[in-house]
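Annotated sample (chain length 486).
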Amino acid sequence: MGTKVVFKWSKKITTSQVVHLIKAERNIDKALAIFDSATAEYANGFRHDHSTFGIMISKLVSANKFRPAEDLLDRMKVEKCDLREDIFLSICRGYGRVHRPFDAIRVFDKMREFKCEPSKKSYITVFDILVEENQLKIALRFYRHMKEVGVPTSVASLNILIKALCKNGGTMDSALHIFHEMPNRGCPPDSYTYGTLINGFCRFGKITEAKELFEEMKMRDGSPSVVTYSSLIHGLCQSKNLNEAIGLLEEMKCNGIEPNVFTYSSLMDGLCKDGRSSEAMELLETMVSKSCKPNTITYSILIHGLCKEGKLQEAVDILDRMKLQGLQPDAGLYGKIISGFCNINKFQEAANFLDEMILGRTSVNRLTWSLHVRIYNMVVQGLCTKCDLSRAFQLYLSMRTRGISVETGTFETLMKSFCKKGDLHKAVHVVDEMVIDGCIPEEGAWSTLLGAFWDERMVQESIELFQVELISEFAEPDIEIQDEAF
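Output written by the structure step:
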């Protein structure tokens, strides 16, 4: 059912009233109902204008309701409403945000059809969307088109062009060439230009070039931003220049630039990869004391580092901190901790985290499929070796229910364990499912099963023989008594 909102508008309904009500309404359906309710006042002389249409389109775009937003655009044209560039750009940016660059171009092309001439701002917005979405060939073609139609070159357009060229190691030299040419075109590089190039050089491991540009930036009174510092710190950590990266962190603090979550996470990553997880943990405390909230990436880095060094209890503590912050650990993080416990033969603890992962609704998907298969099989086999067969079987059944592949080794381990325990019914059940799955047991596994059946048969025969002997022993005196009676 749709949301029905009835308004009793005053006789002198104003656009500012409508704009205020739509802006204040968080529910998109209710906001649309307010807009429609105002439309019903057309009979009383009210008309939607650029501001009411604009706020409604903006709301729809924020809610990813692009079709209704574009329908309102068409309605503005029919109602001969003043169509301005900012409304088109809000839809273009919305499409960019949801990774639909071609729809952004389509809406941009619509502007002329609506008799709205795109300005330099529109061209730069669409150019940036194409670069952000890695549509580099189309972006460069679009840039050439910008020049052909006479869009003047600016620092903003050249920065986006440099960003496009910095996305590929083979075009970094071209990006540097444009950077050097910028002053000659009357567009001196700004801190964003330097930051983009430094980030590009760091991405492709060209740390020397990145450091040179960074020093040049400081010499030209261009204050490096937190993004530029963080890019260089990340690059230094990637190239294992950890002490230099730590020095840069201190430098930015001295310059009054507060590190962000990316800065701290980059340093923690470098420290953990270098086996210095204790220092990474200290950095976490510093970060929290500065009211900088760790994110999922920060926690992942620490958990991976601590597990690699065998510090499982500390890794579990970090996982708990993460959950307390309201962040949901993914399959990869649980997998690290589960594998860690398996490596030190603590399979019951590993099984507990496997249960927690399932309860947390960490679903199996295409990307985590192989990880789920690996950890489930590892834990089931481990529990069998630890003689916790009932729990191993429980997990095995969970695997079957959730469609997680059971490895041949897991089938055989379960079957051998059940044979050893004398539970041939379950052993046969496992073998049946093994054959259904197309797994052929090895000769040794067959021997174990057949041996168990043979042993059971021998026991059965012994019991039957014992029963015969027992019956005959008690039956003979009865016959004698009967004989005596006659």
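Annotation: DSSP finds 25 helices and no strands in the chain.
Annotation: Residues 443-485 form the longest helix (43 residues).
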